[in-house]
């Protein structure tokens, strides 16, 4: 039986892991691989090295990931691994200056992508959006132009 990470709250066994508002500076170790909803919002995760490479690779059932309200400035494409079940990703209210648009191919079932309230300044003209994407939140960023291909 999987154990809940220290300080976090686990619901429905370990399918929902809530580690919000704990002052975390990194993703806690020991998150059960069967997690479906992982809530890491409103912590102090500031740098990509604070999220160990591969932290999410074993979470094949992960459907919802909240990383909003942290201090993230950059996000390497390697940190959005292939997550076949991920449908909701919230990176809002961070300090992201750019988003690794090419990594969207790793989350083919994504329906909601929240990137609002960051410092993103551009959207790639060559984004191949996943077919299920319904909601893309980009408000309150620094985007001044949208590529024509973005609207196709």
Concise account of the structure shown:
The protein is mainly beta and 152 residues long. Helices cover 0% and strands 14% of the residues.
What would you note in describing this structure?
Residues 3-37 form the LRRNT domain. This is LRRNT domain-containing protein. It comes from Branchiostoma floridae (Florida lancelet). The structure is a single chain. The chain has strands at 9-11, 16-18, 37-39, 64-66, 88-90, 112-114, 135-137. It is an all-beta fold and 152 residues long. The protein has a single domain (1-152), classed as Alpha-Beta Horseshoe (Leucine-rich repeat, LRR (right-handed beta-alpha superhelix)).
CATH homologous superfamily heading: Ribonuclease Inhibitor
Q: In the CATH scheme, what's the topology name?
A: Leucine-rich repeat, LRR (right-handed beta-alpha superhelix)
- The CATH architecture category equals Alpha-Beta Horseshoe
Given helix and strand content, the structural type is: mainly beta
Percent of residues in helices comes to: under 10%
Poorly predicted segments: none
Q: In whole angstroms, how far apart are the ends?
A: 47 Å
Radius of gyration equals: 15 Å
Total count of strands: 7
Shape: globular
Strand content: 5-15%
CATH class: Alpha Beta
Order of helices and strands: EEEEEEE
What does the main sheet amount to?
Answer: 7 strands, mixed
Question: How confident is the prediction overall: mean pLDDT?
Answer: 87
Strand order of the largest sheet: 1-2-3-4-5-6-7
Count of domains: 1
Structure annotation, total helices: 0
């Amino acid at each position: 039986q999987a154990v809940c990470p220290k300080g976090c709250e686990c619901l429905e066994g370990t399918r929902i892991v809530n580690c919000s508002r704990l002052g975390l500076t990194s993703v806690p170790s020991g998150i059960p691989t069967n997690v479906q909803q992982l809530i890491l919002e409103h912590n102090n995760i500031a740098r990509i090295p604070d999220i160990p490479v591969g932290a999410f690779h074993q979470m094949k059932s992960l459907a919802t990931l909240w990383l909003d309200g942290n201090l993230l400035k950059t996000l390497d494409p390697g940190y959005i691994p292939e997550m076949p079940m991920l449908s909701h990703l919230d990176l809002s209210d961070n300090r992201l200056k750019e988003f690794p648009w090419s990594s969207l191919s790793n989350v083919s079932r994504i329906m909601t992508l929240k990137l609002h309230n960051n410092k993103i300044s551009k959207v790639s003209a060559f984004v191949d959006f996943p077919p299920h994407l319904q909601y893309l939140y980009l408000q309150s960023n620094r985007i001044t132009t949208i590529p024509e291909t973005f609207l196709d």
